[in-house]
Predict the 3D structure of the following.
Amino acid sequence: MPRSRFVGMDEDLHAAARDAMQNAYVPYSEYPVGAALRGADGNVYAGTNIEFANYSNTLHAEGVAVAKAVSAGVREFEELVVVSAAGDGVTPCGRCRQTLREFCDEDFPVFCVGEETTEYTLGELLPDGMGPETLGK
Ligand code: THU
Ligand code: ZN
């Protein structure tokens, strides 16, 4: 079970995730996703999904948000908000969970917005995951 519900999501992140989702390029799945990270620098890094005709090149919203932050020199994060146009409370896929784990600890909060907003920790989404510590880093 998720750790808690209806807790303090950063509404600016929610708005940023929804704004980014408006720019989703999803001609194949028609399933827009938006994600927004609060960087330790206080700034917001938002991303959306981008699809390609070969399907397998698809960029996920969370990965795009991470890439934007890291490209700006930010590698520490406070929380993540994820939203889909379907309003189904979509959670990050396995690959995105692993991507997040590179830069975030197991207690990192992930808010998934649907009819209800559910707060997970990254550790709940990726138990016993591999992180930099695994390789002694
Ligand atoms: N998607 C994301 O953007 N993030 C996830 O972690 C779940 C899946 C996107 C990929 C694809 O464009 C669409 O949702 C359907 O899978
Ligand atoms: Zn993903």
